[in-house]
TrEMBL record:
Domain of life according to the entry: Eukaryota
Signal peptide residues on this chain, from the entry's feature table: none
Record keywords, A-Z: Metal-binding, Zinc, Zinc-finger
All copies of domain MYND-type, residue ranges: 423-464
A Pfam short name: zf-MYND
PROSITE patterns given in the database record: ZF_MYND_2
UniProt protein name: MYND-type domain-containing protein
A GO MF label: zinc ion binding
InterPro entries in the cross-refs: Znf_MYND
Length: 642
């Protein structure tokens, strides 16, 4: 036993309190209360407070812990032992605050403290009956005892004790719901911060158990905590300081980012409760005018969490709400003015990658469209600091505005799909409702039963079964999502038709007699159409299924058999979880465009090249001829952008 815990030390107390201390050490609750009144009245010198340690140590003797039998019997002895233990915890708080408890003493106190904490937590209903209206106050004491168990920042006595995180979560609920106090949150946050593996399954299960027993209750607790950080003007509670928040956010970042999956159940539950909206509001709060280094550190942690969850599948769906509320644009507007490189890197990634990828989603654009004023929707709170940032912003802004315009036209019914008969000897073009689809694979379209029979003989018999799983592989993508991305691909193809033709000529010249396709990669940082050889299919982040391989083989074969009346457009897009490939056949009734481009490419001589001006003029003449034939509007009625 440490010398400062020996009962003989009580005799060194002032005579006025010595008797009370000896009786309290023997279990007298009344005398312990007298001791507290003497401490409050400062009748015991600060230098002598440490002599009370034996009193509290004796009352925390584990032999006095309630048992199931003693709980059933009840009586004064049970009440006395429980009140003595709680009183001892209460008495240890000022001793710790006055630095009267050393690390060695804390090491001897902790086993008794932990046993009593477990017992009082287990029989919390009984404790509430013995000490009415004190249950939440008891959990408040537990928080101070946890801090006592961590006397030195480099020492965590209780980190690996089973069941501790469940009680910590109940203390957390007490702080958030009933008694918000800075010191308690600091203590809780320090343990949260020091938890070496909060996302480990057994650790996470303890947090869940303590928060109410389900993922949803833990998610609700986290959201309630975040609400304390930026209270509304109607809130009666004082916002927590960055000092109290910093360690909490470090722990939360690890809890939500160190799991085995990006879309773990806890993250999904948070995102379904408006986590992105709450987090963007907090990021704006700290990004607007951080007052010190601690606030800047909290800002970086908020941004880290924001990016991590925006790039997850469940978070991807929340981008629309974050944009519609204007909070995400405010985050960009405030944070580009910060000097810290990590902050700028996050904003650069947000502007160049996350947001452009989202602006091709029907659901996200539908959410954004509910904002009444488009100009205000994308208005920044402050002017951008320099030309490079202005260039990045305008690149995103132009893409967003263009896609919003396409979305509005699509939603208003201005884009009517036109499909071609997949009997390549026929190739007739009709509205989608006027053409029949293969009832087995649901991929091929035919204008008549005869054309279906001909195509079956041409090779569809070998592909039909292989193509059948295709429509099931993207079953969580709605029909509107798939249809809109096709319409957007057609629009962008027609809008950039001149540049695409120039690229095709260059490819035809350098790769004579080699088939090619046009690639629109909406997952890349900067969208730029590419012309590629069919020998280089696009790579996906996820594995390519057998059905997708069959589709690629089938479409390449059909394009070759079309004799220039069909070209391949491949669109890549993502949803935060997977990258999807949409193959869009570009059909026409004649091969005017394809043949004309081949002719221009073949006009190059080995020792000289046509000037760029001459080539451009040739292509413009060719496109004019295409417009005369009406083939620029054959894919979707209403697409007339060139």
């Amino acid at each position: 036993m440490h010398p400062s815990l020996q009962t003989s030390n009580i005799t060194d107390l002032p005579i006025s309190c010595r008797k009370y201390a000896l009786n309290a050490a023997a279990g007298s609750v009344k005398d312990m209360e007298m001791l507290f009144s003497l401490i409050d009245a400062q009748r015991i010198p600060t230098t002598k407070l440490g002599l009370l340690l034996p009193v509290f140590y004796q009352n925390l003797d584990v032999c006095g812990c309630p048992t199931p039998e003693s709980i059933d019997i009840g009586g004064p002895k049970l009440s006395s032992s429980i009140m003595g233990a709680i009183g001892s915890m209460q008495g240890l708080v000022p001793l710790y605050q006055k630095r009267q408890i050393t690390n060695k003493v804390a090491e001897e106190l902790w086993p008794r403290l932990w046993t009593w904490i477990q017992t009082l937590d287990l029989y919390r209903d009984v404790v509430e009956q013995i000490i009415p209206r004190r249950q939440h106050a008891t959990y408040g004491l537990f928080i101070h005892m946890f801090y006592l168990a961590r006397p030195d920042p480099g020492t965590v006595l209780s980190a690996d004790i089973p069941g501790m995180r469940a009680i910590l979560a109940r203390c957390w609920m007490y702080l958030v719901q009933d008694d918000v106090n800075e010191a308690g949150f600091r203590t809780l946050a320090l343990f949260f911060y020091s938890d070496a593996a909060p996302a480990r399954s057994d650790h996470l299960l303890e947090y869940i158990d303590g928060a109410g027993g389900t993922i949803d209750t833990l998610a609700t607790l986290i959201m309630d905590h975040l609400a304390l950080n930026s209270p509304s003007s109607h809130s009666r509670r004082k916002a927590l300081s960055p000092h109290a928040n910093y360690h909490f956010y470090v722990g939360l970042v690890r809890l939500l980012t160190e799991g085995d999956e990006a879309d773990d159940p806890l993250s999904t539950a948070l995102l379904n409760r408006g986590f992105i909206r709450r987090l963007t509001a907090l990021t704006c709060h700290y990004g607007r005018d951080p007052k010190d280094e601690r606030e800047k550190a909290v800002l970086q942690l908020c941004l880290s969490l924001l990016i991590n969850k925006l790039t997850a599948f469940a978070g991807y769906k929340a981008v629309g709400d974050a944009l519609q509320s204007h909070r995400l644009i405010e985050v960009i507007g405030w944070c580009v003015h910060h000097d810290h490189p990590d902050v700028k890197d996050v904003i650069r990634f947000l502007l160049n990658t996350v947001l452009p990828r989202c602006m091709v989603s029907y659901s996200i654009l539908s959410t954004i469209s509910r904002h009444r004023n488009e100009d205000k929707l994308f208005s920044l709170p402050k002017p951008l600091p320099n030309a490079p940032w202005f260039e990045k912003w305008m690149l995103f802004y132009n893409v967003a505005k263009k896609n919003m315009e396409v979305f509005e036209s699509y939603r208003n019914g201005q884009y009517i799909p036109i499909r071609g008969c997949d009997n390549m000897k026929c190739g007739e073009l009709r509205r989608s409702q006027d053409i029949k689809r293969c009832g087995s694979c649901h991929e091929m379209n035919y204008c008549s039963t005869e054309c279906q029979r001909v195509d079956w003989e041409e090779g569809h018999r070998n592909m039909c079964d292989r193509l059948r799983p295709l429509h099931l592989e993207s079953d969580h993508l709605t029909l509107r999502e798939r249809s809109f991305i096709t319409a957007l691909g057609h629009h962008d193809h027609e809008a950039s038709i001149l540049d695409l033709c120039l690229k095709k000529i260059s490819f035809m010249h350098s790769h004579q007699d080699e088939a090619f396709y046009t690639l629109f990669d909406y997952t890349s940082t900067h969208f730029s159409p590419l012309i590629r050889s069919v020998q280089r299919p696009p790579r996906l982040r996820t594995s390519t299924s057998n059905a997708m391989l069959a589709q690629w083989e089938d479409q390449v074969s059909r394009a070759a058999r079309s004799e220039g009346r069909m070209e391949l457009l491949v669109v890549l897009f993502g949803d935060g979880k997977s990258t999807y490939r949409r193959m869009v056949p570009l059909r026409s009734q004649t091969a005017v465009l394809h043949t004309g481009l081949r002719r221009i490419a073949g006009s190059f001589e080995a020792d000289m090249q046509l000037s760029e001006v001459d080539i451009r003029q040739e292509v413009e003449n060719l496109l004019a001829r295409r417009r005369e034939l009406g083939e620029h509007a054959l894919q979707w009625e209403g697409v007339q952008t060139d």
